[in-house]
Amino acid sequence: MVRLLVFGLACAIAAACISSDAADEQAQEESPLIIVSKVRPDPAYFEKRGELTRLNFDFELENSAPFDVEITFIGMRVYDAKGNVLVRRYMGRNGSPGPIAMLPEATIPSGGTRYIFNPFPDLALARAPEYAAITVAHSDGVLNFNVRFHAPPGPVLDRLPLDGISYVYSGNDLFAHHRRVALDSEAALSIGMEHVAQRYALDFTRLDPETGDLAANDGARQSDWYGFGVEVFAPVTGEVVAGRSDMPDNHFDASGQRVFADGFMDAPEDRSLGNYLTLEVGQGAYLVLAHFAENTLALEIGDTVEAGEFIGNVGMSGDTAYPHLHIQLQDGADSVHARPLPITFACVDYDGPRGQASGAVDTGDFVSPCVRQPARPSPVD
User: Fold this and answer.
1) What is the dihedral of CA 268, 269, 272, 276, to 10 degrees?
2) For residue 44, which of 57, 180, 341, 381 is within the disulfide window of CB 3.0 to 4.6 Å?
3) Taking Cα atoms as reference points, which of 177, 37, 56, 58 lies closest to residue 113?
4) Tell me: the pLDDT tens digits for 244-286?
């Protein structure tokens, strides 16, 4: 009896536990004034993440109505190649507050846009997804559209870039900063960004295996950070098509805050990468490796790098607040206009029950190469 009373009270507060979301999805008419102006990436890929499948895509809604509209429901049904539904997920107004309140902004302004990150990225699917049917209900009606998925095109990277156990500080899950770049934001619009080249990027570093700390002492010196100076090996064979090695590393002030190196703001447009390499790695793909320590890259444009070859040391150059190695795969050399490509490794030694397997890595993973490379002297003190 008590349980029924509690449930009834919760439903009353949430304004009908079952009916409101179903009504939002089913009972409204399509509105021609609200359209999908972008789906990114284009094409959209599905990625295997152990037992889960990741559908990493975003969409932009455009409002041509003379009034603002409010998003009240987002639903997604995923289908296989035979047209059978694999999973159905939704977020609506049921609850106090309902899950739709998790959207940073639910209003699509009149004459404006609203960029939405797919809120259901990681799903347990029995078969490969063919497409997703998306429903967005709002205060002026409902919008339905499909997103078709493709398997990652490759290439597969031969190995992880760091020896020993690495910590993936940031990957491309829903909360990772790499994927959270709205293309209607001022930052993206100011540089003409059409695609988020870093969407599938990975940040590798080291930490204390006992405490989980990234740095010893107070972290005020570069040498306090376990990732600084770690040797980097080429994850795949490729030709150097761009890069630099002369940017000073950032440092920390007395309060432990990052201070950009002198001249950082006057550096070229790609200064955010710091010291970096861009490798052409085949199949129309380019691999960017960034934030190397100053003067540790001895490669020149046109050089060929073999998979497993020592290429430099982890640093803190460019737009970074801590020492780490950033890598991203894309379909062009220009990181502003290139399309992102998912990263898959031929073999990863996962710390845990997964053991050794081919696949992707993500935020929070502890990983190491399946075959370690011989150590080489480091030019970083």
Assistant:
1) -60
2) 57
3) 37
4) 999 999 988 877 788 888 878 777 777 889 999 999 999 999 9
* Statement: the pTM of the whole predicted model exceeds 0.85: yes
Q: Between the CA atoms of 172, 177, 180 and 186, what dihedral angle is there, to the nearest 10 degrees?
A: -150
Residue 70 has which token pair?
Answer: 């409010």
Question: What mean pLDDT do residues 236-243 have?
Answer: 97
Summarised one tens digit per residue, pLDDT across range 209-219 is 899 999 998 88
Q: Does residue 22 sit in helix, strand or coil?
A: helix
Residue type for position 311: I
Q: What is the pLDDT of residue 117?
A: 93
Q: Which of 80, 82, 84 is nearest to 127 (CA)?
A: 80
Q: Could you tell me how many residues make up the chain? A: 381
Number of helical (H) and strand (E) elements in the chain, helices listed first: 3, 26
Mapping DSSP onto H, E and C, the string for 200-259 reads CCEEEECCCCCCCCCECCCCCCHHHECCCCCEEECCCCEEEEEEECCCCCCEECCCCCEE
Q: What is the C-alpha separation between 327 and 324, in angstroms, rounded? A: 10
Residue-level pLDDT at 381: 43
